[in-house]
Design a protein that fits this description.
about 200 residues; alpha/beta; Rossmann fold; 5 helices; about 25% helix; globular; binds glutamine; glutamine amidotransferase; Pyridoxal 5'-phosphate synthase subunit PdxT; hydrolase; pyridoxal phosphate
């Protein structure tokens, strides 16, 4: 199984380490040509969404990536990644991929106090450690978007089709279960879309 990790800016290396530990092959997506590869799942890491959005356009990676997501490629988006997926930002005029029907608030916990750690329930997984760094949260879920975790009444994890959006950073904690669950959904998706499913 091969996972493409957006690597133009932000915390991509930690995702790579974790996914490789779990047995996946990873390709860092740094330029347009990297998108021609045969990866079956996509990671959008944390970082600075405005910078990532700008670089994606400048590097002409934006449209081809959006097409892959729209075509159903499983995505694990963390922090800035969920800002890129949202179809609405409540405190920012930008919309990036807009492939997930959620309203996201950037820097929702305030710029200074926005970093904290907690352990909360995540649907289908159980109690997981959650590290928030100048994090957004999800204010509203549209049709088809499912709330997967909340912290103090704020939505911090959503699933929409094969897109998983997390306000926190599972790549920074020891727990591997979120990445494992993502790899399982990539496996299922790849199998479904393989020309050999009749075998
Ligand atoms: N850790 C993160 O990814 C922070 C996201 C950042 N505050 C943004 O708006 O892009």
């Amino acid at each position: 199984m091969k996972i493409g990790i957006l690597a133009v800016q932000g915390a991509f290396a930690e995702h790579k380490t974790k996914l490789e530990k779990l047995g996946a092959r990873c390709v860092e997506l740094r330029k347009k040509e990297d998108l021609d590869g045969d990866f079956e799942g996509l990671v959008l890491p944390g970082g600075e969404s405005t910078v990532q959005g700008k670089l994606l356009r400048e590097l002409e990676m934006f449209e081809p990536l959006k097409e892959k997501i729209q075509a159903g490629m499983p995505v694990l988006a963390t922090c800035a990644g969920v800002i890129l997926l949202a179809d609405h930002l409540s405190n920012d005029g930008h919309v990036y991929f807009g492939t997930m029907p959620v309203t996201v608030k950037r820097n929702a916990y305030g710029r200074q106090l926005g970093s904290f750690h907690t352990i909360r329930e995540m649907k289908g997984i159980g109690q997981v450690p959650m590290t928030f760094i100048r994090a957004p949260y999800i204010e509203k879920c549209g049709e088809g978007a499912e709330v997967v975790a909340e912290v103090d009444g704020n939505i911090v994890a959503v699933k929409y089709k094969e897109q998983y959006g997390l306000a926190f950073h599972p790549e920074l904690d020891e727990d591997d279960r979120i990445h494992e669950a993502f790899l399982n959904s990539v496996k299922k998706y790849a199998k479904k879309n393989s020309p050999n499913t009749w075998l």
